[in-house]
Q: What sequence folds into this?
């Protein structure tokens, strides 16, 4: 098992939105006051199931995690794809029941940091200023999660595949502040996220490129219009 000592865990946590603006020494002290553990998750292994009781905040130390819902026919609806230093479970942790409303699984061998739910309680070992920073970051993270869910609703509400594609690419353009950008999804994942058939998606992307609307190569895109 890869060695995730205290210093390495602190280094990765310092790049997470939850600890943005907080000194590494403070993060280390804060984590030492909580119960946390590093767990190894195999590729394809479930981390969270729907209705699971969640009493921790998950942070990806290494690897990749997909958050999704499953439809009655068994098909997967992808909600988000998480990489190193990104978090999951915070939205569940902030609900009264703390019962999960989605699934999370590893798409490659991953190491996950599970931080005790007390991360949301008032810290006793760090200053009020640093505690306020962490709470502010938690609110920002929750706002980002809500924004992503709103984008997802907007996408799946569109009737045409082209509209779904253009809205998704426009969001990426805005997030990257550029007409040229890379997306985190491969074709299967993008089709899953947009709730469309992969072959139909590939066909529509090719048509849009021929019509001079977009240019793309693998996961690199450019909006031309």
A:
């Amino acid at each position: 098992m890869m060695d995730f000592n205290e210093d390495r865990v602190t280094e990765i946590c310092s790049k997470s939105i939850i600890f943005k603006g907080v000194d590494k020494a403070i993060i280390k002290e804060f984590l030492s006051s909580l119960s946390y553990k590093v767990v190894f998750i195999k590729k394809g292994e479930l981390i969270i199931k729907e209705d699971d009781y969640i009493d921790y905040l998950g942070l990806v130390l290494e690897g990749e995690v997909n958050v999704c819902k499953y439809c009655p026919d068994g098909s997967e609806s992808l909600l988000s794809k998480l990489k190193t230093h990104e978090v999951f479970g915070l939205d569940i942790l902030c609900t009264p029941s703390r019962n999960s409303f989605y699934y999370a699984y590893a798409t490659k061998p991953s190491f996950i940091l599970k931080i005790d739910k007390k991360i949301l309680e008032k810290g006793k070992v760090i200053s009020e200023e640093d505690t306020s920073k962490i709470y502010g970051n938690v609110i920002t993270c929750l706002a980002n999660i809500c924004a992503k869910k709103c984008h997802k609703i907007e996408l799946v509400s569109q009737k045409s595949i082209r509209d779904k594609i253009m809205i998704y690419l426009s969001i990426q353009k805005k997030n990257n502040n550029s007409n040229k950008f890379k997306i985190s999804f491969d074709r299967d994942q993008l089709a899953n996220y947009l709730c469309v058939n992969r072959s139909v998606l590939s066909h529509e992307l090719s048509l849009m490129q021929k019509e001079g609307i977009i240019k793309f190569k693998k996961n690199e895109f450019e909006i031309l219009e």
Observations:
- The radius of gyration is 19 Å.
- The mean pLDDT is 93.
- Residues 128-156 form the longest helix (29 residues).
- Residues 158-223 form a domain with the Arc Repressor Mutant, subunit A fold (CATH 1.10.10.10).
